[in-house]
């Protein structure tokens, strides 16, 4: 572990702590340890494996304030979000703690004997986590992976390793055997890439940029390694004139500026039916100006800073179109940016086409249902989206027509741990969460037993 890394508080630009990074040798040693631990973990009885996960959940829950404070300092997440994120880890662990005893196979009628299927664990699963939601995205990978009988190596993003490192400690405190759940802070090019190339890692779960995701998929092809990808998004918030416009407008800032817009589900395109456009914009401006950007440790904060100077600089390059209005943000140290509403001149604008990952939203009008659908689908991405209408038939038609994995009607919520999450098109491959996620962490084995 040769190099050190200074973890920065994005709200103050001060050093939170300095950590050691895993190098290649330490990464290999940990992967081998996880491979060894797999031999016993896979044979822990289903009820006992469930009990381990419930104990892990209980230890995480007992450190709720500590984990939330760490995420506020490391990631600039608002206190409200950080507390939700700890709860999400607890809920996901608890949800999948019921899975080992429900990992059912099938009995299939055949001639001459009995045919049964088993869902076998894969081995070591590598989870690569981005910096935008360090705790939840880690949990969506490690909880079902462990439940299915795999061991886990997890690489947090360089910017945001602290809560993941704590979760690694809590797993041991909860009694999980050494080597079952391993957290390896380090560089993507070293630790993350080794998950792709090391033959003992049998699956990679990656969340992050589409660019790196494509490289990981290509790398995994070499060993036909299983891969789940959760990548970028350019999601639409489609508001029809018959909707509760005041409600849609009041809820729109949260759908894109939450987590300072650093959310793959951010609704960065707002499409408003032309006859309601002016009314929507009046209400939306009031809501944006009320959106509180401030010290994220305050319970009143709606939004904190961006994660880094680099991310701040990238986001500024998207301010390429007329600005309708902005909210406000603190000045001084920290990577602060005011929520910004653009009115692009046409659909070729970069801010309309590309993922921003910052507090910038673009608004355009559409004339009818068909045009609204076409504008929303005009993207290489397909992760999330919202539809606001009081017309049930229209809600159903538009839901079925939009090419994305997660839609909400008269709501902007994207994620529930009990329902599947993932993307169409270049937003990803596979699904996380919900009842079927175990299938992504197991292989089906078919066994025929002869009557003879
Ligand atoms: P990224 O490079 O895709 O990083 C995601 C994770 O992959 C990090 O843990 C990263 O490690 C790791 N990684 C990087 N290169 C790797 C490689 N060659 N092999 C294996 N792992 C590798 O994302 P980013 O640079 O942090 O952000 C860039 C843009 O990606 C954002 O502006 C946003 O548009 C998008 N993004 C999307 C999501 C999402 O939830 N879909 C999340 C984050 C970012 P390091 O920390 O060491 O780089
Ligand atoms: Mg990167």
Structural features:
Aldehyde Dehydrogenase, Chain A, domain 1; binds magnesium ion; binds NADP nicotinamide-adenine-dinucleotide phosphate; about 450 residues; Aldehyde Dehydrogenase, Chain A, domain 2; 14 helices; about 20% strand; six-stranded mixed beta sheet
CATH H-level superfamily title of the largest domain: Aldehyde Dehydrogenase, Chain A, domain 1
Largest sheet: 7 strands, mixed
Uncertain ranges = none
- First and last CA, distance: 58 Å
- Which molecules are bound in this entry? NADP nicotinamide-adenine-dinucleotide phosphate, magnesium ion
Task: State the domain count.
Answer: 2
Helix and strand content put the structural class at alpha/beta
- Report the total helices: 14
SSE topology sketch:
Blueprint: E1 4-8, E2 15-20, H1 24-41, H2 46-62, H3 64-75, H4 79-97, E3 107-108, E4 113-121, E5 124-128, H5 134-147, E6 151-155, H6 162-173, E7 181-183, H7 188-197, E8 201-207, H8 210-221, E9 226-230, E10 236-239, H9 245-257, E11 269-273, H10 277-290, H11 309-316, E12 323-326, E13 340-342, H12 350-353, E14 360-366, H13 369-377, E15 381-382, E16 385-388, H14 392-401, E17 408-409, E18 424-425, E19 428-429, E20 442-450
Parallel strand pairs: 5-6, 5-8, 6-7, 8-9, 10-11, 10-16, 11-14, 13-14, 16-17
Antiparallel strand pairs: 1-2, 3-4, 4-20, 9-19, 12-13, 15-18
Helix pairs in contact: 1-7, 2-4, 3-4, 4-5, 9-10
The structure holds NADP nicotinamide-adenine-dinucleotide phosphate (NAP) and magnesium ion.
Residues 128-132, 155, 157-158, 187-189, 192-193, 207-209, 212, 215-216, 230-232, 264, 314, 355, 357 line the site of NADP nicotinamide-adenine-dinucleotide phosphate (NAP).
């Amino acid at each position: 572990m040769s190099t050190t890394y200074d973890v920065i508080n994005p709200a103050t630009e001060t050093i939170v702590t300095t950590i050691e990074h895993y190098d290649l040798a330490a990464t290999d040693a940990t992967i081998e340890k996880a491979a060894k631990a797999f031999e016993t973990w896979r044979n822990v009885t289903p009820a006992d494996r469930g009990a381990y996960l419930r104990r892990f959940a209980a230890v995480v829950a007992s450190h709720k304030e500590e984990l939330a404070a760490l995420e506020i300092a490391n990631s600039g997440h608002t206190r409200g979000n950080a507390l939700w994120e700890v709860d999400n880890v607890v809920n996901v662990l608890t949800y999948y703690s019921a899975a080992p005893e429900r990992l059912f196979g099938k009995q299939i009628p055949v001639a001459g004997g009995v045919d049964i299927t088993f869902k076998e664990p894969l081995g070591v699963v590598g989870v690569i986590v981005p910096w935008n939601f360090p705790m939840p995205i880690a949990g969506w990978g490690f909880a079902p992976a462990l439940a299915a009988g795999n061991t886990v190596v997890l690489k947090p993003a360089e910017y945001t390793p602290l809560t993941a490192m704590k979760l690694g400690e809590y797993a041991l405190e909860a009694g999980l055997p050494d080597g079952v759940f391993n957290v390896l802070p380090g560089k993507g090019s070293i630790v993350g890439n080794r998950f792709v190339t090391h033959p003992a890692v049998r699956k990679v779960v990656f969340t992050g940029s589409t660019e790196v995701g494509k490289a990981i998929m290509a790398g995994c092809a070499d060993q036909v390694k299983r891969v789940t990808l959760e990548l970028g998004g350019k999601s639409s918030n489609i508001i029809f004139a018959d909707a509760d416009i005041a409600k849609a407008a009041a809820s729109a800032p949260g759908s894109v500026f939450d987590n300072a817009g650093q959310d793959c589900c951010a609704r960065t395109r707002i499409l408003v039916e032309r006859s309601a456009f002016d009314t929507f914009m009046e209400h939306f401006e009031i809501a944006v100006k009320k959106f509180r950007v401030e010290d994220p440790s305050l319970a009143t904060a709606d939004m904190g800073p961006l994660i880094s100077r680099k991310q701040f600089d990238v986001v500024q390059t998207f301010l390429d179109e007329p600005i309708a209005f902005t909210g406000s943000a603190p000045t001084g140290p920290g990577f602060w940016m005011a929520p910004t509403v653009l009115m692009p001149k046409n659909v070729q604008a970069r801010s309309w086409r590309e993922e921003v990952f910052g507090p910038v939203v673009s608004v355009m009008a559409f004339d009818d249902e068909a045009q609204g659908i076409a504008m929303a689908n005009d993207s290489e991405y397909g992760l999330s989206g919202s539809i606001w209408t009081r017309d049930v038939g229209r809600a159903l038609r538009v839901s079925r027509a939009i090419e994305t994995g997660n839609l909400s009607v008269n709501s902007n919520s994207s994620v529930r741990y009990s329902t599947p999450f993932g993307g169409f098109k270049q937003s990803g491959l596979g699904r996380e969460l919900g009842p079927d996620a175990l299938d992504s962490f197991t292989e089906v084995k078919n066994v025929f037993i002869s009557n003879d």
